[in-house]
Design goal:
Layout: H1 3-13, E1 32-33, E2 39-44, E3 50-57, H2 84-96, E4 102-106, H3 113-129, E5 136-140, H4 147-156, E6 159-161, H5 169-175, H6 181-196, E7 206-213, H7 220-232, E8 238-243, H8 254-257, H9 264-282, H10 304-311, E9 318-319, H11 325-328, H12 336-347, E10 350-351, H13 355-361, E11 372-373, E12 382-383
Parallel strand pairs: 3-4, 4-5, 5-6, 6-7, 7-8, 9-11
Antiparallel strand pairs: 1-2, 2-3, 10-12
Helix pairs in contact: 2-3, 3-4, 4-6, 7-9
């Protein structure tokens, strides 16, 4: 195959690695296929907003036997690899045409982790030095990479990701008999954390990770607690979840044998995990506060914030004219923007006095009414002072 054909194949293969802010529903946040066949992905930029990245595998050759992966060693599939020059030239072509602002580069494991890392780094070094490209580069760190390989990767990257895949060693063993959880995953995450910590040499590089959800026998409790630890102890920038796609994995995988009455439940579970992750990362919830069902999983019927509110009636109603931002964020339907707007109104001397005024000011909020009070008599919005 020529370079263009390989790029089309390997860019399409990269869709199984979702550890970047790629949307799945809205048209403006969904990946699109370029005229030449390559896949382009919207993602959140480091300064906010959204932009487009070019995403591809360097190679789908792999010596590992990750049972959930369609490119595991035992599968008889076409194998292709790109040279560093091919990836660099393709990216620069997109950049010069104003189509993308950066690169997300991952790979199967060619020979071993450090050999693969050297090939990934070669692309970034070529872009930085020969092409003087100062834009966004996200490089995948291969499980089992040495400390030296990790540090060299950080030297050339804007972001990096090492996929943790599972929340604990027992679940990880179900996913991959060829990798060691403590050595290849936990050890790598800790080293990345040390090198990207505030004040460290590579503190400007953002670390990411991702769980595969539903392939092993993990529960949502395991995933949420592991996520909380990655944020609080390892300084992870973002944790992502990828619902396991049945039919791609080894038949021995628990996710292949599990009976699922409603196929949509798989994606609903992924959505609930993102809601729980958002509560911990943006709303100040701890992992102990996330409500679980008796089976250790999040409810598929209701979002975790609403469930927390209904299970903690003593906390409510919250007085919107006196509550702190942290207290306001506990109210179902109230997010960071709404909470800040309420605080800004109060600083300006405006108070909300009844449900009618609340509905006029925040018509898009649903379900908050039973959880708020106003602490002031009257029937209209009034200024104090």
């Amino acid at each position: 195959m020529d370079t263009q054909q390989k790029l089309e194949f390997l860019a399409d293969a990269s869709r199984y690695d979702l550890a970047c802010a790629c949307g799945t529903k809205r048209k403006d946040t969904h990946r699109v296929r370029g005229k030449d066949g390559a896949w382009l992905y919207p993602m959140s930029t480091p300064r906010g907003g959204r932009d487009i990245i070019f995403k591809t595998l360097l190679s789908n050759v792999c010596v590992n036997e990750c049972r959930y992966c369609p490119f595991r060693e035992a599968r008889d599939v076409p194998r292709y690899s790109l040279a560093a020059e091919e990836v660099a030239e393709a990216l620069i072509s997109y950049v010069r045409r104003g189509l993308v602002f950066g690169l997300f580069l991952s790979s199967g494991v060619i020979r071993d982790a450090d050999h693969t890392m050297a090939r990934l780094v070669a692309v970034a070094e070529l872009l930085r030095r020969r092409y003087e490209f100062h834009g966004f580069i996200h490089l995948k760190i291969i499980p089992g990479a040495s400390d030296a390989a990790i540090e060299e990767t950080l030297r050339w990257s804007s972001q990096v990701s090492l996929n943790v895949e599972a929340p604990h060693a027992a679940a990880f063993k179900q996913l991959s008999p060829t990798k060691n959880f403590e050595r290849d995953i936990v050890g790598g995450i800790r080293r990345i954390s040390q090198l990207t910590a505030p004040g460290a040499r590579y503190s400007h590089v953002q670390p990411f990770t991702q769980f595969v959800v539903g392939a092993a026998d993990e529960t949502d409790t395991h995933l949420v607690k592991a996520t909380f630890g990655l944020y609080r102890r390892q300084g992870m920038n973002r944790v992502y979840y990828s619902a396991y796609q049945r039919g791609l994995g080894d038949e021995r995988l628990p996710g292949e044998r599990r009976q699922i009455a409603n196929p949509d439940d798989v994606l609903t579970r992924e959505h609930r995990l993102y809601q729980a992750e958002w509560l911990m990362r943006k709303y100040g919830f701890s992992d102990e506060e996330i409500p679980f069902e008796t089976d250790g999983n999040l409810s598929l019927a209701a979002d975790p914030k609403t469930l927390w509110a209904t299970r903690n009636p003593a906390y409510f109603p919250v007085d919107v004219n006196r509550a702190t931002k942290w207290q306001l964020l506990r109210v179902p339907g109230v997010g960071p923007i709404t909470a800040q707007r309420i605080l800004d109104m109060r600083r300006a001397g405006t108070r909300i006095t009844n449900l009618r005024d609340w509905s006029l000011l925040f018509p898009r909020i649903r379900g908050a009414e039973p959880f708020v009070k106003f602490g002031l008599p009257g029937s209209t919005i009034r200024k104090t002072g």
